Amino acid sequence: MKYKSTRGEVKNLSFKEAVLMGLASDGGLIVPESIPVVNLQDFQNLDYRSLAKKIFSLFIDEMKEEEIEELIYKSYQHFRTPEVVNIVHLKNLSLLELFYGPTFSFKDIALQIVGNLFEHILAEKNLKMNVLCATSGDTGSAAIYGLKGKKNINVFILHPYKAISPIQELQMVTVKEKNIFNIAVKGTFDDCQRIVKQLFSDLEFKTQYSLGAVNSINWARILAQVVYLSLIHISEPTRLGMISY
Q1: What's the rounded Cα separation, in Å, for the pair 113 and 101?
Q2: What is the pLDDT of residues 135-185, one digit of tens each?
Q3: Largest interatomic CA distance in the chain
Q4: Residue 234 · residue 90 · CB < 8 Å
Q5: What is the reported pTM?
Q6: Residue 141 carries which DSSP code?
Q7: d(Cα 129, Cα 40) in Å, to the nearest integer?
Q8: 31-51 as b/e, with b when 16 or more CB fall inside 10 Å?
Q9: By the 8 A CB rule, do 185 and 191 touch?
Q10: What does the alpha-carbon distance between residue 166 and residue 169 come to, in Å, rounded to a whole number?
């Protein structure tokens, strides 16, 4: 499986190269060069971790199945339900509960994976990374809890000053790990996002300081979210809603 930029100037990336690059150097999003064709029946009756392993294996050919399995189990070992997510069946609706991670956000499901994946790849390649993240609240706290204490990674979280919920602010600023840096920006979330995008668009700066991303521009985060979204298509109920908080 190879990856390319949606703008067409970056091609033939490996999965690990795509994860470390975050946003493509031409400013595009990194996506697979092709999408595997699957039989949904092969995905039925799997527990969440097994489903994640099966989906990840479709898009990662650089890691052994045992490595993928270890990554998944390590990432979800502290969730508050054994199944990672729960499906609650009501009369005419089934609800997918996504709030069992450390910050009660659905983004924990992806960012716990991303943190461990970053650490694995960086150690393998003997590299370091500075992660930039703009947040309106939930992404920042989930990123911090996914990346805190990880080797070879510093994390810089930009949030709008006094414009996020008190709980989300406390989830971020009370984490005292040496690799976590919270930055309050006098402005809106769009201002935070603009700063991050400008830094990533400066290719010389990005390369010099080894910038990485955990926002939805990173393919690894999207892939991790594909797993629970796939439950919508393979579950028997005709209607499935999602609860993230």
Answers
A1: 12
A2: 998 999 999 999 999 999 999 999 999 999 999 999 999 999 999 999 999
A3: 56
A4: no
A5: 0.91
A6: H
A7: 37
A8: ebeeeeeeeeeebeeeebbeb
A9: yes
A10: 5
Model confidence over 40-86: pLDDT tens digits? 888 888 999 999 999 999 999 999 999 999 999 999 999 999 999 99
Q: For residue 10, what are the contacts with CB-CB under 8 A and spacing of at least 6?
A: 4, 21, 24, 25, 26, 28, 30
Answer for the pair 153, 213: CB distance below 8 angstroms, yes or no: no
Which sequence positions are flagged as catalytic? 107
Which residues fall within 8 angstroms of residue 57, CB to CB, at 6 or more apart? 65, 68
Q: Which residues contact 149 (CB under 8 A, 6 or more apart)?
A: 177, 179
What pLDDT does residue 237 have?
47
SS3 assignment, position 170 = helix
What one-letter code names the amino acid at 144? I
Question: What size, in residues, is the chain?
Answer: 245
What is the SS3 assignment for 7-66?
CCCCCCECHHHHHHHCECCCCCEEEECCCCCCCHHHHCCCCHHHHHHHHHHHHCCCCCHH
User: Are 60 and 206 spatial neighbours (Cβ–Cβ below 8 Å)?
Assistant: no
- Reduced to 3 states (helix: H, G, I; strand: E, B; else coil), residue 89 is strand
User: Which residue in this structure is represented by tokens 């092969």?
Assistant: 42
Q: Locate 90 and state its tokens.
A: 């009501």
Q: What distance, in Å, lies between the first and last C-alpha atoms of the chain?
A: 34
Q: How far apart are CA 30 and CA 23, in angstroms?
A: 7
CB-based contact 148:180 (threshold 8 Å): yes
Lowest mean pLDDT among 11-15, 122-126, 202-206: 202-206
